[in-house]
Amino acid sequence: NAGATAPEWATVATASSDFVKIGTTNGTGSSGVVTLDDCFSADYRNYRIYITAYLDSTTQYFWRLRTGGASGTSVTSGYYMAGYMTDLKSDANGSGIQGTWSGSNYEAQENSSDNEDRAGTLVIDLFDPFVTARDVFWSGHWFQYDGSYLRNINSGGWLACQDTQITGCEMYSASANFRAHSKITVYGLKE
């Protein structure tokens, strides 16, 4: 209708997204490990990982990568990390540098509360985990409450893993179980 005297209709393209949910898994309430295998592949170069950790006792929790597909194994060495933390409680605040050189995981180096209503959170941007020609790099943002302090940690790191194909990830705790509403969700980012 070129004369603009009547409504016109168009066919709308099918919705698509460049941010694709790859997988998700929850805690069980009876284990200190939550694993998501087979979530990285050659289909995507970059990933975003969302982690919520509800612990049943106050302790540290950690993140690490896995190799080997569906029956994967945890990579337990070669982690390098540097970051900056700010903390706040009712009568004090502070800040400091955190880091790990050739460690066994990626960590906030602080406890997370056992409060069922206050999750520890971690968002990670992971770059090229499936490529074996180079190390795997990421940037991360932790936020958690340890029962006294709110802690905000921005950091980045890499895993020295050349010749290793990274296919999954997991969170694990120092001494607590992950409540059932704890979760790892992985998204692939299209180029």
Explain how this protein is built:
This protein has 191 residues and is an all-beta fold. Helix content is 0%, strand content 51%. The chain contains no helices and 13 strands. The strands form two sheets. Strands 1-13-3-9-10-11-6-7 form an eight-stranded antiparallel β-sheet, with no helix packed on it. Strand 10 (136-145) and strand 11 (150-159) form a beta hairpin. The protein is globular and about 70 Å long. The mean pLDDT is 91.
Topology:
Elements: E1 19-26, E2 33-36, E3 46-53, E4 61-67, E5 73-74, E6 79-89, E7 92-103, E8 106-107, E9 120-127, E10 136-145, E11 150-159, E12 166-173, E13 183-189
Antiparallel strand pairs: 1-13, 2-12, 3-9, 3-13, 4-5, 4-8, 4-12, 6-7, 6-11, 9-10, 10-11
Summarize, please.
The chain is mainly β and 191 residues long. The protein is 0% helix and 51% strand.
Average residue-wise pLDDT? 91
Total count of helical runs of at least 4 residues: 0
Proportion of β residues?
over 45%
Distance between the terminal alpha carbons, to the nearest Å? 38 Å
Largest sheet: 8 strands, antiparallel
Q: What string gives the helices and strands in order?
A: EEEEEEEEEEEEE
Coarse shape: globular
Helix content: under 10%
Radius of gyration: 20 Å
Please give the number of β-strands. 13
Oligomer designation: single chain
Strand order of the largest sheet: 1-13-3-9-10-11-6-7
Q: Which structural category fits the helices and strands?
A: mainly beta
The unreliable regions are none
